[in-house]
Design goal:
The protein has 2 domains: about 140 residues; about 170 residues, Histidine kinase-like ATPase, C-terminal domain (Heat Shock Protein 90). The protein is about 55% helix and about 10% strand. The strands form 2 sheets. The protein has a 5-stranded mixed beta sheet, covered by helices on one side. Strands 1-3 form a two-stranded antiparallel ribbon. The C terminus is likely disordered.
């Protein structure tokens, strides 16, 4: 019902804008015809007409954008509410079970494991929202350190396997050719958050079985690319850039079944850009999986990092 109302509001604004432009065009043409001998007035009227049309068009565009922004924000609030409420309800249920019913030690350990997983999910959602707020307000100015990307990726894979209760073969890391250790200079906790979001995204959008491949490689001599490839539901080509927008969720019946806040890939791209890199998505199409690539400046442990992304 809410989606229908929003679409109706967008259609109303567009219709009003078109009608106003039509009325303005009709009045202006009629005025010019009646005053065709007054050249100066005709020129002045044409200029004012152009300004009027520009104002109407800009106003219509602004209103439509505001409706769409409000729609994304409402979707975000609903998603965050669900992501916060679900683990809290689960933890409460198991605590009440432990309190009211006698349980074996094995059952207790199982309950503790589930509650710990739910608390991790709750913490991840809170951290994601807080991180989005930090990135939206200011650039990170912390001191940056040398980071071994292979070690960082391995740690993130281990966390993702534990968080989603997956077997080791569900997420694999392809060895770097030549056994080269790849480094970058950055903020470890931010890059960790970016990699975890990429891995969580790959797992979440693989509803028929998780088969994720991770790799690191040198790109254009001075850059390192981290690729996360899944075999999940894939993406149409017109969504490959939009998924990095704040609050954006890919439309579609299959997508609506998958919960999320619409902040994960927004965080990934902003963290990458604050480190002088970028994040992109590629996909052969729906049902054929997706590859998300995080590109960062390559740092030589014995030398300085590249000056800027334009060097590539």
């Amino acid at each position: 019902m809410n989606i229908t109302r929003r679409r109706g509001a967008i259609a109303l604004f567009i219709t009003l804008g078109v009608l106003l432009v039509g009325v303005a065009v009709t009045l202006n043409i009629g005025w010019i015809i009646r005053n065709e001998r007054a050249v100066a007035l005709a020129v002045l009227g044409t200029i004012l007409f152009g300004l009027l049309i520009a104002g109407v068009v800009l106003n219509t565009i602004f209103l439509v954008r505001e409706v769409r922004r409000n729609e994304r924000q409402n979707s975000f609030l609903n998603a965050v509410t669900h992501e916060l409420k679900t683990p809290i309800a689960s933890i409460r249920l198991y605590l009440e079970t432990l309190q009211r019913r006698p349980t074996t030690e094995e059952q207790k350990q199982q309950f503790y494991k589930i509650m710990l997983s739910d608390s991790d999910r709750l913490l991840a959602t809170v951290e994601q929202v807080l991180k989005a707020g930090e990135l939206g307000q200011r650039a990170r100015q912390q001191n940056r350190v040398l980071i071994d990307l292979e070690s960082l990726l391995a740690d993130c894979v281990a966390i993702a396997l534990q968080r989603h209760n997956l077997p080791p073969e569900a997420i694999v890391i392809t060895p770097t050719p030549g056994a080269v250790r790849l480094h970058t200079t950055g903020i470890p906790e931010d890059l960790r958050a970016a990699l975890l979001n990429l891995l969580d995204n790959a797992v979440k959008y693989s509803p028929n079985g998780v088969h994720v491949s991770c790799s690191l490689s040198i790109t254009r001599y001075t850059w390192v690319s981290i690729r996360i490839t899944d075999t999940g539901i894939g993406l149409p080509s017109n969504q490959l850039k939009r998924i990095f927008n704040r609050f954006y969720r890919v439309p579609g019946r299959d997508m609506l079944k998958i919960k999320g806040t619409g902040l994960g890939l927004f965080l990934v791209r902003n963290i990458a850009r604050q480190h002088g890199g970028d994040a992109v998505a590629t996909s052969p199409g729906p049902g054929l999986g997706t590859t998300l690539t995080l590109t960062l400046p390559l740092t030589n442990p014995s030398g300085p990092a590249p000056a800027s992304p334009s060097a590539a």
